Amino acid sequence: MSQLAIYLPDDRSDFEPMETISVEAQWELDSEPDSLQLRVVWNTSGKGDTNISTKKIITIDSPGAADSRRLDVELPAEPYSFSGKYVSLIWALELIAQPLNESCRREITIGPGRREVLLHRESTDPPAEE
Amino acid sequence: MKRARDNPFAVEQVQRLRYRFRDEDWPSFLNRLRSQNYRGAIVGPKGSGKTTLLEELAGQLAPLGLRVHRLFLNEQRRAYPASFVRSLQNSLGPQDVILFDGCEQLRPLSWWRFRWQTRRAGGLIVTTHRAGRLPTLIECQTTRELFGELVRRLHDSIALSPETLDRLFEKHRGNLRDAIRELYDLATGENLEETDSLTLRSRM
User: Fold this and answer.
1) Full-model pTM
2) Does B192 score more than 70 pLDDT?
3) pLDDT tens digits along A94-112
4) Does the domain spanning B26-139 belong to CATH 3.40.50.2000?
5) ipTM surpassing 0.90, yes or no?
6) Architecture of domain A3-118
7) If we measure between CA atoms, which residue out of B15, B199, B157, B47 comes closest to residue A48?
8) Do B11 and A50 touch (CB under 8 A)?
């Protein structure tokens, strides 16, 4: 059975904008793909239609059926990960074997202080001072 | 307040729901479709699953070697699809099937014009609210039981009171898409009156 995996530094999933991270891509496939792509993508999630965007693609040509590779990825400056009542913007790394259509996905957070921007006040937060 | 990404009724979750046949399955439906020369109408009211069925049908037809062309019209977008027709008209053949979502948006003359201009296509399958434009392939209907089942599929740990489920089904006159959109709002936790009857329990 084919397997793809993405490992993040220190198993973190939250990062600063423009941070450069070392991503380990691992794959063990039933047949050899033409290439592997590590994509940095975002999508929206919520009540309305879903938007998606691919911000960066790193291609590994002739990767062999099974191997691993460490890749340095500079994360985008924006948009920040955010969530409100009706929409969230979710960043993710995707590893895709072409043309086998095998893939895996790892969601990450990109934002100042390595935090998702919340468009509403958490109910547990104390009221903001005037 | 629940983040949009955590809302079990978010659009991308709803879009993962599969169409549920009442009396048949995919092989039977595809057989009927073939016997009707890939021509017919998926008929039903708003929010009854017509578009979901058409989307899944596209995925079933492509592996049969058919070339699927999709056209979508709705109340906001109902002009004659001239560019769609122009781009296909001269290349249509027996392997081409047009899936036309919302054909009732075309007035009768425009509909006949469309049929004439796409007559070389091997198939034409439409969704429509009322029967009549093409032989009916299937009538999509919704029930309270189906609504409850879909809600449970969206969030297996959700407890929704039967009264709330019935109220939403009645309020939206069986339009499951709109009923689930209201559940999205309830799940945000903003509507406290209704949230009392909608309990989201986290699994421990």
Assistant:
1) 0.81
2) no
3) 999 999 889 999 999 999 9
4) no
5) no
6) Sandwich (2.60)
7) B15
8) yes
